[in-house]
Amino acid sequence: MPSRPFLALGVSLFALIGVQAAYAQGTPPAAPQDAAPAAEEEGDEIVVTGTRTQGRSRLESASPVDVLSNQSLQRQGTTELGASLAAVAPSIDFPRPSANDGTDAVRPATLRGLSPDQTLVLINGVRGNSSALLNVNGTVGRGSASFDLNTVPVVALERVEVLRDGASAQYGSDAIAGVVNLRLREARSGGGVSTTYGFYHTDIDTARGSRSVTGEPTVTVSGWQGIALGSEGFLTVSGEYVKREPTNRADFDTRVTPARVTGRYGDPEVEQGSGWVNAAIPVADGWSLYGWGGYQERDSRSAAFPRLATAAAAGGVGTLYPNGFVPIINTKSQDIKSALGLRGDLGEWNVDLNLSYGRNRIRFATLDSANYSYGAASPTEFDDGRVTYDQFVVGLDVARKFDLLAGVNVAFGLEGRREGYRIEAGERASYDYPATGVNPGAVPGAQGFGGFAPRNEVDRSRRNVSAYVDVEAQVTDAFLIGVAGRAEDYSDFGSTATGKLSARYEVAPWLALRGAASTGFRAPALQQQYFTSVASVVQNGVPILTGTFPSSDPVARALGGLPLDAEKSTNFSVGTVIRAGGFDLTIDGYHIRVRDQLGLSENLSRTFSPQVAGILDPLNVAAARFFINGLATTSQGIDVVAHYRLRTPAAGVFDLTLAGNVNDIDVTRVPTSTSVLNPAPTLFARSRILSIEDGTPGEKVTGTVDWSLGDLGALARVTYYGNVNQPGTTPAADVFSGRRAITDLELRYEPSRGPRFAIGASNLFDVYPDAITPANNSTGVLGFPYYSPFGFNGRYLYARAGLSW
């Protein structure tokens, strides 16, 4: 009934407290600016990503750069940075996997459909650390270990710059698809607090039945404060607390009578707190000391497949769980990000020396579960072990502008990096049989997520050094050319060099052409080189006990594994910029070819041959997998971003944006087995190929109208997503999301100072992807495809209120 969402939205409004961005531009920092004047400058935003020339605007750059303000990220229902970016940036996608172990808690984002670890994430221009989690599940980004965007709350940010172009020559490894630069808030004064409350009000139509949900709330409390340090310095403190209840979009399970929902399939339960500081202070004439630090603790609880009463009884734990059980996979993440630097002028050279340290540690536990090999004496909670990744970076950047031609900017620098990766074993009951009293014939380990064994323990590190040169020459007032080169040397796989050539030509004051050609690379992550474990992996809706082994492990080598090498890419882009009055339009086409791409092999089953069974049976695993080089892909597409600001004397200001991405990915080469087994198993089959080619939408178009009149405002956004394939091992097992349009709406009252309020709806018309058919959902758990680029939770209503000063 049309009135239901609006009635529920009105009821949801209650007394809350909120925050809005304040700005301080440049160095030294200035007093914060109000949000409305900042928006007036859109299109002329000065960018620092993709160029080392000071004062260059977004539309003057030789490469496409999106500038996403704090306001645009906050004016929506989600409080996750990854989901916020996906809502406003057409080239970014942020699926919401479920029933996929730790990937439910650390969700991967993609740029232009490429792997999540092929996008480099910076914080204030400094390389950020990736998550310790390796995505070994059958989701988008399978095999990647990438930066966790949700470790940085939106309240801590001034803006985000997204460089949609290859940039390895400028920034180093991982920047094959582009760069996301998170610019922290800078303020000497001002502040605010905010609370957002939201819940789902949705009708769920799965393949086997329908039901309605009103609830599953999320509460977010955030705040920030700017503090003056001396006459010119600043200290900005920000924090956020999130409490999110789990969602459940599982189908009805016909294995029980009467059929009912037995599983939990949706967003995990999350409780997290984040705190950030960002500061700078002059220490001498022309020199300033700066630094930032962030810390987050996240407790996430997702569900594995349900074990029915019959399974519990057969496993010998019927007395513990007479009605069956749903194992809960608990990840507790601790994340640290920090940097300290000194910058200033040495003669006519601008110098920036910085040190940064980042660490992510994840503790795994399995709750409400059992180890069948213990029988009725089984524990119900298990400590599964820990994974840790840390990174220490030292960087020196030097730049100077010469009065040659119409201006030549020369920059060069050095970087040294040390990375570490560690796996610690869990308690014995999480992975092994008991010392005595074994339940005969039972598979050992915690149901749902088995722990790390001593055999899996790893403590590895590596070092790399790099040097770069970046020159931008304004040959004439109309013609800009840039050349960059970088050399890197890694202690584990050797050296590499990359280069980039870019240019921009202004045909007329209203028209410019731009383009770039570059080479790139991505070093294999330590997680990809050394991760090892045994866990249940879902294949065609059925969990299989699968071992993941390093490619150099004897098991992997017997199955065809080889030492890993770096991925390499060649990027070409060409585009145009059109600007007239309050209107601007950018159109950029790209062609990206990746060679020696890393992939996680098929789950090589013991049933393939007696030889494979002989390798795997002593390890008590049904299948094994490992990382391999040799994939080649070609990605090509076009990004279009059109923006127009219409000012009217009586009706206010209308910001109109239409942005779209059309993207096509082809896997052009697949590695073949190097094993001596006869027959040799297939390492990379159709499901892995289609996951790369069709796992992200080929088309995504977003239209936004943002209206403001004084302190009042409204935002309406419609996003169209193309069809996505969640592939199975056969065409009959493929699951499609369908083509969908999602509508978001927000109404707000936002004075520059004082109380602020907003109400809104995400997915106003309660749109879902196609339901998974019973033929591909024998257990009744998977109600909708977790490849869906907009998730599968339905209509979300929220209210936000706060106080700004």
Kindly describe this structure.
- The protein is mostly beta strands.
- It has one domain (about 5-805): Maltoporin, Chain A, CATH 2.40.170.
- The protein contains 10 helices and 35 strands.
- The protein has a 22-stranded antiparallel β-barrel.
- Strand 19 and strand 20 (about 510-520) form a beta hairpin.
- It starts with a helix and ends with a strand.
- The model is unreliable at about 1-40 (pLDDT under 50).
Write the layout of secondary structure elements.
Elements: H1 3-12, H2 35-40, E1 65-69, H3 70-74, H4 81-88, E2 92-93, E3 110-111, E4 119-123, E5 126-127, E6 157-163, H5 168-171, E7 178-184, E8 191-206, E9 209-229, E10 233-244, E11 269-284, E12 287-303, H6 309-314, E13 328-346, E14 349-367, E15 382-402, E16 408-425, E17 458-474, E18 479-490, E19 494-508, E20 511-522, H7 526-530, E21 533-539, E22 542-548, H8 554-559, E23 567-580, E24 583-600, E25 604-605, H9 610-616, E26 623-625, E27 627-648, E28 652-669, H10 686-694, E29 699-709, E30 712-721, E31 725-726, E32 735-736, E33 740-749, E34 754-762, E35 796-804
Parallel strand pairs: 4-7, 22-26
Antiparallel strand pairs: 1-6, 2-3, 4-5, 6-7, 8-9, 8-35, 9-10, 10-11, 11-12, 12-13, 13-14, 14-15, 15-16, 16-17, 17-18, 18-19, 19-20, 20-23, 21-22, 23-24, 24-27, 25-26, 27-28, 28-29, 29-30, 30-33, 31-32, 33-34, 34-35
